[in-house]
Amino acid sequence: MVSKSLIALVAATFASETLAASIHRGHEHLHLGKRDMVTHIVTHTAWSTVTVTLGQSVNAAAPAETSSAAPSSNTIAHNVNVVNAPASPSATQNSAPAAASSTATPEPTEDKSISHRLQRGLAYNDGKLLQSFLGSGSKASWVYNWGQVDDSGTGLEFVPMLWGIDKGFPQSWDANAQKAIDAGSKAFLSFNEPDLSSQSNMSPQDAAANHIKYMNPWAGKVRISSPSITNSDDPNMGLNWMQKFFDACNGQCKVDFLALHSYGTDGPTVLNHLLDSYNRFKKPVWVTELGFDGDDDQKNQAMEYVLDHLENNSTFSFVERFTYFMVAEGEMLRNSQLTTFAKTFAYGA
Fold first, then answer.
1. What is the pLDDT of residues 18-58, one digit of tens each?
2. 225 has pLDDT over 60
3. What percent of the chain has pLDDT over 90?
4. How many CB atoms lie within 10 A of CB 141?
5. 140, 134 Cβ separation under 8 angstroms
């Protein structure tokens, strides 16, 4: 006879999985040609409350470590400033980092007179859609398409991605990587969301071994990313997965910068996630996918807020490059026209 407690456990598990599925928003990386279509699952992240007024001294709260992907009911005030981070480390640092304490935070500083050159990039599948982002005054300086071959037709720096270890990607990698270097690529992206089963889907240990095999040989020729990870706070995903990856690397993986994704968030939450990532791993950061919550006006407000901090607040000098998901109809385009937040991203101050 099945016990009542077992029945309750099964019911609770089913309810939890149903809830988790309902709060994911689906996107597709429409990989053309040799690039297969890959379903991209957006992960909503639960965060601890961080209420900070500009100019005040505070402690930053680390993300809540729960297995639920549901957004937290806590709110973060939109006039948030975020805690300061140490100066950006050398791009040659390759040792496995230790997790930083969530309670030890430096004093916040914000100096609007100091800015660094944040490089904005365009994530795309259809190169024909890029031209409206590249008019007079465009601030886009690089492109990527989750693939190995530049078909953008833009003349901007192309950053190839290995993506995964199946579907023949490793077999074509060496030749395409060298072609990218010959054409001017300065950096390579490693695996795409190995912490997500619908993407490259690797354990931290397998990712470390394959990173050493396929990415390490290019060290010294280009800068190399970490695997691109979600912002889930599940114990086996997001920054938790990244920590296990570095542990498995045991100092052997060549990683010059972190590649981070963030979905289902607002501006202050994104910034605090970036700070938490930097404080934990002490490496520069590229935001290679980002998706804000809300309507287009709310997304534009979040875009303005994040760009202002990334470009004008010296706290965020560790963030080197930034892309939004993605140049596609229904995302950054509506009826073939740039949305307000897309215009802000491509042309705004």
1. 333 332 333 334 333 323 433 343 333 333 333 333 333 33
2. yes
3. 66
4. 14
5. yes
Q: What pLDDT, on the 0 to 100 scale, is given for residue 94?
A: 35
State the DSSP code for 234: S
Per residue, the 3-state secondary structure of 244-268, as one string, reads HHHHHHCCCCCCCEEEEEEEEECHH
pTM listed for this prediction = 0.72
**231-266 residue pLDDT tens:** 999 999 999 999 999 999 999 999 999 999 999 999
- For 8-20, the pLDDT digits (tens) are 433 444 343 333 3
The single residue listed with the structure tokens 């099964």 is 10
Burial of 132 (0-12, 13-18, 19+ CB in 10 A): middle
How far apart CA 22 and CA 121 sit, in angstroms, is 30
SS3 33: coil
Question: Is the Cβ–Cβ distance between 108 and 85 less than 8 Å?
Answer: no
Rounded-to-integer distance, Cα 109 and Cα 269, Å: 18
Query: Higher model confidence: residue 59 or residue 273?
Result: 273
Instruction: Please say whether the beta carbons of 204 and 241 come within 8 A.
Output: yes
By the 10 Å C-beta count (0-12 exposed, 13-18 middle, 19+ buried), 2 is classed as exposed
Neighbours of 212 (CB within 10 A): 16
Q: Which of 54-68, 152-166, 208-222, 227-241 is predicted least confidently? A: 54-68
Exposure string of 37-48, with b = 16+ CB inside 10 Å and e = fewer, is: ebebbbbbbbbb
Distances (CA, A) of 224 to 93, 122, 211, 337: 11, 19, 10, 34
What is the end-to-end Cα distance of the chain in Å, rounded?
A: 67
Over the Cα atoms of the chain, what is R_g?
Answer: 20
Average pLDDT score over residue span 169-173: 98
Measured CA to CA, the distance from residue 227 to residue 209 in angstroms comes to: 12
